[in-house]
Specification:
This protein is mainly α. The protein has a domain of about 60 residues: Orthogonal Bundle (Hydrophobic Seed Protein). Helices cover about 60% and strands about 0% of the residues. GO terms for molecular function: lipid binding.
Length: about 100
Amino acid sequence: MARWLAFLAVAVMIATAAAAEGSAGVNGPALQACNPSQLSSCLPAISTSAPPTGQCCGNLRQQGPCLCGYLRNPNFRQYLSSPGARKVASACGVPLPRC
């Protein structure tokens, strides 16, 4: 029983450290949580010739660290790898990552 509790305690400490490392930026502050719905303000600009809004660009910048994860998800990849998404990212000054 004691071995099991020790293993569980170490596992929790490792998971906590990994989560903290993944959420801390280079300068220490936590990044905004990944939330793909924040990019919904960009859909009109991605799917039409409309320019991206300030809200779209701001959300795209905030979600920038999450883009590789979104590109790995087949539900989001079709939007983020489209020519429209490249156009929006370029207009917002946000480089699309190579993952």
